[in-house]
Specification:
Shape: globular
Strand order of the largest sheet: 1-2-3-10-5-8
CATH superfamily: Jelly Rolls
Largest sheet: 6 strands, antiparallel
Radius of gyration: 16 Å
Helix content: 25-40%
Number of strands: 10
Number of domains: 1
């Protein structure tokens, strides 16, 4: 049986190849990609060569530039088309910056609009995304254990234009994403959750 930690270098290389392909399909140079995404040319070059693993925040910026949901990006990098996905074939990716674990339970597939992800965010960690890759990207989040704070930008409910939802185990939050957003596990335990993402 394969270990719980999927081979990170292999997945990083597949992500690198897919990101390179997406850039080249659009006819963008690295400089143009940097301008579109806000990620430095040097970082993009290292990511495309597989020399460094992109963080969740960087992947969020790249997905915004490509107007591609992250679930679709991972599915394209995983290159698995089966409808029955056994546990050992569910790709596990770790954010090198925060230690956030992302498992593709039901990867995005042609003919389907939804994907299901399991997230494991360490206590004290925050994963932030600068924007949504596409407007009205539908999310359904169910917290399995721990505590999770989900902040959505652009709501009139908060003094700074943001609203933060604090979820306890068993709580469910649904929203259509049109803004910057973040996930924070205040602790003392990790936040473990299921997330279903549905493309409009």
């Amino acid at each position: 049986m394969r270990s719980e930690q999927t081979e990170p270098n292999t997945l990083d290389m597949r992500l690198a190849a897919r990101l390179t392909g997406l850039r080249q399909q659009r006819g963008w140079s690295l400089d143009e990609m940097a301008e579109q995404s806000g990620v430095s040319r040097a970082s993009l070059s290292r990511i495309e060569r597989g020399e460094t693993s992109p963080t969740a925040a960087v992947l969020g910026r790249l997905c915004k530039a490509f107007q591609l949901p992250m679930a679709v990006l991972f599915a394209q990098a995983e290159d698995r088309g089966a409808d029955f996905v056994v546990h050992d074939d569910q790709t596990l990716w770790t954010d090198p910056q925060t230690g956030f674990h992302r498992r593709s339970l039901s990867p995005a597939r042609p003919g389907y609009r939804g994907a299901m992800i399991f997230g494991d965010l360490p206590a004290g960690a925050t994963v932030s995304y600068a924007d949504t890759p596409i407007p009205d990207l539908e999310h359904h989040l169910w917290l399995q254990s721990g505590t999770l704070e989900v902040t959505l930008a652009g709501s009139a409910e908060g003094a700074d234009g943001n609203v933060t939802h604090r979820l306890s185990a068993g709580d469910c939050l649904r929203f259509k994403l049109n803004s910057a957003n973040s996930y924070h596990a205040p602790g003392p335990d990790p936040a473990r959750y299921l997330l279903c993402v549905v493309t409009p």
